[in-house]
């Protein structure tokens, strides 16, 4: 039986007992190229953390196809490494092999080849032995994209992936994202630039702590929906009382379909 995709059922998630996402319902089809848009503080990054398994839902369910849990790559908004740690470009990219090789096994021939191909794909040939602390912001973002390439994942989550990139480099990585989509991978990206969303992403989920609209991008990013999202964001009271949990305090984790 074919998977329906990623199923978000009455998803509420946040920090402490203060939800950043309220009662979200959506089904994201397998192979989708989806932008997650919305005002600052709308819950976009929180949604990616839930999908990546880094944050448990307060209530509701996230249904992920089993292969997605096993083959998931997540580009966080900020690097997960410290520039004080002495690691070079090659070894940083090789960290992307851990999900399928394991953190304590030496790189085999296939892993070395995959790392070299990923470094070439992001145009960092010749930088393999350069320490990360010597790189520019744009070069560091290339390293992070190379880590994603190495993982060869079915589900790719990108949180503001174009930080520190110039326009020509953005175009390179947009072309890479389109290629992932053409290969049948599911790509979900948090983005603020609505013109970029309109040009490159056929599906959009518009959040303002609750779902505003979900579907074809042209319809979702209407003036009416954007105004509604803005209104919800402005009306949010960060000092409101914590959300009560259900009587049984059921907290559903990410589940396999």
TrEMBL record:
GO terms for molecular function: ATP binding. PROSITE patterns: ABC_TRANSPORTER_1, ABC_TRANSPORTER_2. Residues 6-233 form the ABC transporter domain. Residues 237-257 are annotated as: Disordered. InterPro entries: AAA+_ATPase, ABC_transporter-like_ATP-bd, ABC_transporter-like_CS, Metal_Ion_Import_ABC, P-loop_NTPase. CDD domains: ABC_Metallic_Cations. PANTHER family: IRON TRANSPORT SYSTEM ATP-BINDING PROTEIN HI_0361-RELATED, METAL TRANSPORT SYSTEM ATP-BINDING PROTEIN TM_0124-RELATED. Belongs to the ABC transporter superfamily. This is ATP-binding cassette domain-containing protein. Transmembrane segments: none annotated. Keywords: ATP-binding, Nucleotide-binding, Transport. SMART domains: AAA. The keyword rRNA-binding does not apply. Residues 247-257 have a biased composition (Acidic residues).
């Amino acid at each position: 039986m074919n998977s329906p995709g990623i199923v978000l059922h009455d998803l509420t998630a946040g920090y402490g007992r203060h939800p950043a996402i309220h009662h979200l319902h959506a089904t994201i089809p397998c192979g989708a190229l989806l932008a997650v848009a919305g005002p600052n503080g709308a819950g976009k990054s929180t949604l990616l953390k839930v999908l990546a398994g880094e944050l448990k839902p307060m209530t509701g369910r996230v249904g992920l196809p089993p292969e997605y849990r096993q083959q998931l790559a997540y580009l966080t908004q900020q690097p997960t490494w410290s520039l004080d740690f002495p690691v070079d470009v090659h070894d940083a990219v090789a960290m992307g092999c851990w999900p399928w090789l394991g953190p304590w096994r030496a790189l085999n021939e296939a892993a070395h080849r995959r790392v070299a191909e990923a470094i070439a794909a992001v145009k960092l040939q010749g930088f393999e032995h350069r320490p990360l602390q010597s790189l520019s912001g744009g070069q560091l973002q290339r390293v992070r994209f190379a880590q994603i390439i190495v993982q060869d994942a079915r589900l790719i989550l990108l949180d503001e992936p174009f930080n520190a990139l110039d326009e020509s480099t953005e175009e390179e990585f947009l072309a890479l994202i389109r290629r992932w989509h053409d290969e049948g991978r599911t790509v979900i990206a948090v983005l603020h630039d609505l013109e970029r969303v309109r040009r490159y992403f056929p599906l959009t989920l518009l959040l303002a702590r609750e779902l505003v609209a979900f579907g074809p991008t042209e319809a979702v990013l209407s003036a009416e929906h954007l105004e509604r999202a803005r209104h919800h964001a402005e009306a949010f009271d960060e000092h409101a009382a914590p959300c009560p949990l259900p009587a049984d305090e059921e907290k559903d984790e990410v589940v396999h379909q």
